[in-house]
Amino acid sequence: MTVRGFAFIQHPSLMFEQEVKTLYNSILSDKNCSVNLKIQVLKNLQTYLQEEDTRMQQADRDWKKVAKQEDLKEMGDISSGMSSSIMQLYLKQVLEAFFHTQVSSILFSVCHT
Questions:
Q1: For the chain, which residues make up each domain, given as ranges?
Q2: What angle do CA 49, 78, 16 make, to 5 degrees?
């Protein structure tokens, strides 16, 4: 699952594929699924958002350098739109998984160490 996460960071459009949506949503919503697997999917999504934020910040810095010459703002808007669309695909299941007692406890301990 970790390798898939890295692939999705490099090629975010893969997260729109039906097979991937079904996989991630079933892992996050299945109450009998391994907690570690749920956590890995959540980490994959978190890492994707962090990487996308880093890319957008760099694009913004680059845009500011040439803002008067070209209108590069649209490129950032497209990228932002994709990450928003991806997260909307998984939002319900992410919220449900986050409120799972074991997942919340483990994520809290991981984030605060």
A1: 2-111
A2: 60
Looking up tokens 């892992």, which residue turns up?
A: 27
| Helix, coil or strand: residue 62 | helix
pLDDT at 110 over 70: no
In order of 18, 62, 65, 105, 113, the CA distances from 95 in angstroms are 20, 34, 39, 14, 22
User: Helix, strand, or coil here: 67?
Assistant: coil
Question: What is the amino acid identity at position 44?
Answer: N
- Give the H/E segment covering residue 76: helix 73-98
The predicted structure's pLDDT at residue 113: 47
Q: Which amino acid, 99?
A: F
What is the C-alpha to C-alpha distance for residues 98 and 36, in angstroms, rounded to an integer?
13
pLDDT (tens digit per residue) in 67-106: 766 655 555 455 567 888 888 888 888 888 777 666 665 6
